[in-house]
Design goal:
Layout (H helix, E strand, L loop, with lengths): L2 H7 L8 H10 L1 E5 L4 E3 L7 E7 L2 E7 L2 E8 L4 E2 L1 H5 L6 E5 L3 E7 H10 L1 H23 L5 H16 L1 E2 L4 E4 L3 H8 L3 H14 L2 E4 L4 E4 L2 H8 L3
Antiparallel strand pairs: 1-8, 2-7, 3-6, 3-8, 4-5, 4-7, 9-10, 10-12, 11-12
Helix pairs in contact: 4-5, 6-7, 6-9, 7-8
Length: 227
């Protein structure tokens, strides 16, 4: 991957030096997985950091036969960074929601480069603080109306990973159960809200291409801000 493309694709690497990026991609391993495949099992956390080159994944927690989606990540994001710093065991895994391409960098190599490039180190801290703030916002929204919470989830996904088209901002048509899990509302409630948003013309679901289009993104942002 070209250095400039990497800086554009991965926000974490936007301030890293060209030498750092070249070294990282020389030691990175490429992976491709089909929809539904586990890309990281719970016993493998801490071995590497993973970068999403394309596609969508979900981080889920599994207890017995039950599983709950904790986060949905798309192009440009990364996961596994906490586990390489904190070696406690994980009860979560990562599943491909679409065909996905990843790059992985081993724990030892990644820690080595963090010490070599203070800009990358600082940028990683910034990204981790941003995630903490997002988690705090989710906690504050627990008493908000379900429609507001779902709009907030959609807006976040659109802003983080959405693709602009002539119709609106496109994201993966995420399975309703996963969308409900990360929003912390019921599946039936999620379906009803999606139907209402569709009736209003704020979203459009293209099932054939597995795409959800936020046709009226501004209205969704306004709804999400009603905390």
């Amino acid at each position: 991957m070209h250095v400039e493309v990497a800086q554009y694709t991965f926000p974490l690497m936007s301030t890293a030096s060209p030498q750092t990026l070249e070294w990282l991609f020389n030691v990175a391993t490429e992976h491709e997985y089909p929809t539904g495949r586990a890309v990281l099992m719970e016993d493998a956390w801490g071995n590497a950091v993973y970068f999403v080159v394309s596609g969508w994944v979900k981080v889920r927690r599994t207890v017995g036969e039950d599983s709950v989606a904790l986060a949905i990540l798309g192009r440009g994001d990364f996961f596994g960074e906490m586990a390489i710093l904190d070696e406690s065991p994980r009860s979560t895994d990562v599943i491909a929601l679409s065909p996905v391409k990843l790059l992985s960098i081993s724990r030892d190599k990644f820690i080595q480069i963090l010490f070599k490039d203070p800009q990358l180190h600082h940028r990683m801290l910034q990204m981790m603080v941003k995630r903490l703030r997002q988690a705090n916002v989710r906690l504050q929204m627990r008493t908000s109306p379900p429609a507001v919470k779902l709009a907030h989830t959609l807006v976040n996904l659109g802003e983080s990973y959405g693709k602009d088209s002539s119709i609106g901002k496109e994201i993966l048509n995420i399975p309703v159960k996963d969308l409900a899990d990360v929003t912390e509302i019921g599946v039936e409630e999620t379906n009803k809200i999606l139907e209402k948003l569709s009736e209003k013309g704020w979203i459009s679901i293209d099932s054939a291409n597995h795409v959800l289009i936020m046709v009226n993104f501004k209205q969704l942002v306004n709804l999400a801000d009603r905390v």
